[in-house]
Amino acid sequence: MTAQQVRTVDGRIAGKRGQATRARLLECLGEMLVSQPYRSITVIDVARLAGTSPATFYQYFPDIESAIIEIANDMAKDGAHLKELADGRTWSGKAGMLAAEALVDGFLEFWNEHEAILRVVDLATAEGDKRFHKIRMKILNNVTISLADAITELQSAGKADAVMPPTATAGALVAMLASISAHQRVFEAWSIKLAELRAAMIGLVFMGITQKKPVAV
């Protein structure tokens, strides 16, 4: 099966029309996730919005959760660029501040773009659904590893104290980035401006990695 081929639930390869129908179903489901809880969405609702029948939906997905996982997996592929923002960066001085800034902006933008599906992933993960947990870890683990490597490199070069455990520190920073990015509106409700929140996140990332005070850029 090539990367372009899509199979139905019973294993048949879908033609162009079938692929378009499947994509339309996922698009409509994604739109619905923006405005309502995913547990309230039914196959009938999605099929109606897509202009097709529930039977057609079941040709491509056994249930709503399976279709949501397809959306989440596509989202996770887009999340691969977060690792790139952490890889091979210079973390000392002004360059380090710029690297922290790029990483923070990457997280904020990614969560804003995929807010609806990430909300579902977080909820299902908290409820113990291993399928969604795996997707969440796929997004965050690689960033954690890259930041841990950066901390280890700085410590080995004597540019950072060895008191902070690299992997635990990186994991805490990534958890902070993900949590704050997912709750931006909460901070707005506390009258904390996004610009101030962003500046705080940048400073915390820089300090966590370098164990030095932030510098002006």
Using only C-alpha atoms, the radius of gyration works out to: 21 Å
Largest sheet: none
Strand content: under 5%
Q: What would the principal axes of the Cα set say about the shape?
A: elongated
**Low-confidence spans:** none
Structural class call reads mainly alpha
Q: How does the SSE layout of this entry go?
A:
Elements: H1 16-35, H2 43-50, H3 54-60, H4 64-78, H5 80-86, H6 93-113, H7 115-126, H8 130-156, H9 166-182, H10 184-189, H11 194-210
Helix pairs in contact: 1-2, 1-7, 2-3, 4-8, 5-6, 5-8, 6-9, 6-11, 7-8, 8-9, 9-11
Structure description:
The protein has helices at 16-35, 43-50, 54-60, 64-78, 80-86, 93-113, 115-126, 130-156, 166-182, 184-189, 194-210. It is mostly helical and 217 residues long. Helix 2 (43-50) crosses helix 3. The longest helix has 27 residues, at 130-156. It is elongated and about 65 Å long.
Features:
217 residues, 0% strand
Please sum up the structure shown:
With 217 residues, the chain is an all-alpha fold.
